[in-house]
Amino acid sequence: MSAPFIFITTHKINPGQLGEFRKLSREYEEFVHANEPDLLAYYAYLDEASGEAALVQIHRDAASAEHHMQIAADKIGQGLAITTTLRAEVYGQPRSIVGHALEANSAAGAEVSIKPDVLDGFTRSRPHRPA
Predict the structure, then answer these.
(1) Which residues contact 18 (CB under 8 A, 6 or more apart)?
(2) Which of 5, 29, 32, 60 has a CB 3.0–4.6 Å from the CB of 38, allowing a cystine?
(3) Over the stretch 1-18, which tens digit does the pLDDT of each residue have?
(4) Domain span at residue 42?
(5) Cα torsion at 53, 55, 124, 1 (round to 10°)?
(6) Which of 8, 92, 98, 102 is nearest to 53 (CA)?
(7) Which neighbouring-strand residues pair with 11?
(8) Kindly report the CA angle at 48 between 11 and 33, in degrees rounded to 5?
């Protein structure tokens, strides 16, 4: 079964860096939207206290996630400079670049979870309307 590759990271925003994080988040979103056609969806969520952000990426496949890590490396680095990664969750089988990033996150103390095998599921491009 072909399924999207989903990558979710949660970051603690360094004290005093929320404004900069918001700015970088907008720039990152604009960059990936313009440059990554196989990134099906991207969302950034902030917790109620505005101290943690979760970044959700839904890629067409693992190759798209690899491409993302390569072309967005500078943008990713800017965000990592003002945050601490707490968690990384992957749904799908990561390839080498994403795998190395996950290993680095784990070595730095982040909780890493990989669920490589899809059991079943579906993707809708528009709402289902029963007949």
Answers:
(1) 50
(2) 60
(3) 689 999 999 999 999 999
(4) 5-115
(5) -130
(6) 8
(7) 53, 85
(8) 55
